[in-house]
Design brief:
Layout (H helix, E strand, L loop, with lengths): L3 E10 L2 E11 L4 E5 L6 H9 L6 E6 L2 E2 L5 H7 L1 E4 L11 H9 L9 H7 L16 H13 L5 E5 L7 H16 L4 E4 L3 H7 L2 E6 L2 E7 L5 H8 L14
Parallel strand pairs: 3-8, 3-9, 6-7, 7-8
Antiparallel strand pairs: 1-2, 1-4, 4-5, 9-10
């Protein structure tokens, strides 16, 4: 059984339909790179899965349970964690306080303060610093750490490298590889295609609110992804790698 199943999902921003009839399933341990141009619907799709944006129609199943109508904090308790674009930390609170807040709504498990500091060494010396005073890379690490503190079964990571220096991106991806080696299930929105492909087991590309490519990462070429990204192949014309 799939960990996450999305069926005919439509999501709107007022009159704008941002996600159109999207269906897919993700198994435990899959690492999915969700790519597409700005405005393709990627962030809206992640927010809908996390419960931060109510869909207009369709269904979201998590580990066999219909969570479509559940509020966001209830989905966190079920094991879904979103790291949103822009990080959205509590700037007037310390790193440690931001992490501890997440513990109150999450599940018990491996991820503790010490485990997060071990994964992100850059945070150890900054644990008592206000997150509003952190660098971009430190804020992203803190945002991922906050999600981990809920001990999620599914992590939705939106724009991990946006606005960061290359050396910081490399540090974050080293930590992500350590996390993924432990069997985490992840949906990653990433504009840097090479970075995404370096960790992904599967690639999905969105165009105008629809998924136009869905293949194992090892079975798709960069040219195919770029074609889908820019709409050179319309929905349904690229062979899907999954049933």
């Amino acid at each position: 059984m799939s960990l996450l199943a999305v069926d005919q999902l439509d999501v709107r921003h007022g009159l704008l339909q941002a996600v159109r009839e999207v269906s897919f399933a993700i198994g435990k341990g899959e690492i999915v790179a969700l790519v597409g141009a700005n405005g393709a619907g990627k962030s809206t799709l992640l927010r809908a899965i996390a419960g931060a944006h109510a869909p207009a129609s369709g269904a979201i199943m998590f580990d066999g349970t219909d969570v479509t109508a559940l509020r966001a904090h209830r989905r966190v308790a079920q094991g879904i964690a979103l790291v949103p674009e822009g990080r959205r930390l509590f700037g007037g609170m310390t790193v440690q306080e931001n992490l501890q807040v997440a513990m109150r709504v999450g599940r018990r498990g491996y991820w503790t303060l010490d485990a997060v500091m071990e994964l992100f060494p850059m945070l150890r010396a900054r644990r008592d610093a206000l997150t509003g005073n952190l660098s971009g890379g430190e804020r992203q690490a803190a945002a991922i750490g906050r999600a981990l503190m809920t001990n999620p079964r599914l992590i939705l990571l939106d724009e991990v490298s946006l606005g960061l220096a290359p050396v910081v991106i490399e540090q974050l991806y080293r930590s992500l590889r350590s996390l993924l080696a432990g069997g985490a299930t992840l949906v990653l929105v990433e504009q840097e295609l090479s970075r995404a492909l370096s960790v992904a087991t599967r690639v999905m590309c969105m165009l105008e609110g629809r998924i136009v490519l869905d293949c194992p990462a090892a079975a798709v070429t960069r040219d195919q992804i770029v074609d889908a990204y820019f709409g050179l192949h319309r929905a349904g014309t690229i062979a899907r790698g999954r049933a």
